[in-house]
Amino acid sequence: MNQLPEIIRDIERVPADVVAQAAQYQAAILSDVAGRRGTMHARVAPVHHSMAVAGPAFTVEVRPGDNLMIHAAIALAKPGDVLVIDGKGDQTAALMGTLMLSACKKLGLAGVVVDGAIRDRLELMELGFPVFSAGFNPAGPTKFVPGRINHPISAGGAVVNPGDLVVGDADGVVVIERAKAPAMLALAVKKVADEAARLDAISRGDTASKWLPAALRAAGVLKEGEQL
User: Fold this and answer.
1) Digit-coded pLDDT (tens) for 41-58
2) What is the C-alpha to C-alpha distance for residues 163 and 131, in angstroms, rounded to an integer?
3) Count of beta carbons in the 10 Å neighbourhood of residue 197
């Protein structure tokens, strides 16, 4: 009986042209068109609000406070990949800092998303490399507990499969299934156009939400024929 290896080296990634298109949209737009699915918990936030990332997920599962498998993942990931690390939300020790993240930047990775703590916040703000984490802690990690690379993981409450589209910005991180990503981008085009039209209407003084009365009646707040 063949056992699935702990490290999977070859994965199918979301296409580069899809990543390039996705990078043009806010994470909020992509979350909306994806049915509000795949959005990570707000604890996973950028080190600085100006940071943004888009790329295929290169997934890593570690035990809390141990970064052995992250070192292995850095050695295996390809340029443009986003390391997405299931650190179990643990914030008792940092899983990464300036040294490891500098290596990620040098190797051409697109960014790192860690559902766990990191450290060296001020240095990372100067590094100019997109990093999202669940917090900060000065304590260093251990390096001897096995984990997994490129298996399905849960990070920030979202399911992440290797090769899925990952997009992050000041609002947080959204993950879109690889096979669905092209269709979601087509919907994003319409979403952006609709919101631009709505903003134009608001600028002209039309601040009323056309859908609101019907929604209030459906919720039982307004009676039939009653207005706000």
Assistant:
1) 999 999 999 999 999 999
2) 18
3) 10
Q: For the chain, what is the total number of helices (H) and then of strands (E)?
A: 7, 10
DSSP string, 171-198: TEEEEE-GGGHHHHHHHHHHHHHHHHHH
Dihedral sign, CA of 24, 28, 32, 34?
Answer: positive
**Rounded to whole angstroms, how far apart are CA atoms 188 and 38?**
15
166 forms bridges with which residues in the sheet?
A: 55, 175
133 vs 114: CA distance, rounded Å: 5
> Which of these ranges, 35-39, 77-81, 175-179, has the smallest mean pLDDT?
35-39
Q: Which two tokens stand for residue 49?
A: 């609000």
Q: What predicted TM-score, i.e. pTM, was given to this entire model?
A: 0.93
